[in-house]
Structure to design on (205 residues):
């Protein structure tokens, strides 16, 4: 089921009419990302031969969904860098140090959307500004709409998952070490992954 479903009914006068599915239009509203049921992670090549995966356990954000027009939708996410977890404490400590994120000086990674569009079916692209340390650059994230449901507590939820590839050097994350066999310790390319569950805000009284 597409979140934003457009159908053109052509009348005898050939005038196109936009028909919006009422069930999808009902999803329109403001949502808060549920950090307990969401994950923001990354995958990076290590020593040229294997992948290291990690995630950020502390993050918050909001979504604004428009069930009639995806261009009116938006997203805002803040990620606390010090919450990085790769499963190895020494590696996490290195990541938050000045060699990489410098979390003491730059505690947050942020994303603020500037555009949303439907690519087809349940696939969407959200483009915006990703800020890491003191560098802000554009980023496009392709997302799959996983559907909506009312949970056991009566909260209305929507789910999305997706990913984006970046070059960490574009954001000033350039630390590396040469390997004796050739190549480098950490790849420049990083895959960011998003698995989002968001709760709809109650209507204003």
């Amino acid at each position: 089921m597409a979140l934003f479903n457009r159908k053109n009914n052509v009348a005898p006068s050939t005038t196109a009419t936009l028909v919006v599915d009422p069930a999808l239009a009902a999803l329109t509203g403001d949502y808060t990302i549920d950090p307990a049921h969401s994950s923001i992670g990354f995958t990076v090549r290590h020593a040229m031969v294997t992948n290291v995966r990690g995630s950020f356990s502390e993050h918050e954000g909001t979504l604004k969904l428009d069930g009639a027009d995806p261009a009116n939708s938006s997203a805002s996410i803040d990620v606390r860098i010090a919450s990085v977890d790769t499963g190895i404490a020494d590696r996490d400590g290195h990541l938050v140090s000045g060699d990489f994120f410098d979390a003491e000086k730059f505690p947050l990674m942020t994303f603020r959307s500037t555009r949303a569009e439907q690519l087809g079916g349940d696939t969407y692209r959200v483009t915006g500004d990703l800020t890491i340390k003191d560098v802000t650059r554009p980023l496009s994230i392709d997302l799959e709409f996983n559907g909506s449901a009312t949970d056991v507590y009566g909260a209305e939820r929507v789910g999305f998952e997706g990913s984006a590839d970046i070059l960490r050097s574009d954001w000033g994350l350039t630390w590396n070490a040469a390997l004796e066999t050739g190549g480098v310790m950490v790849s420049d390319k990083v895959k960011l992954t998003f698995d989002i569950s968001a709760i709809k805000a109650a209507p204003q009284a």
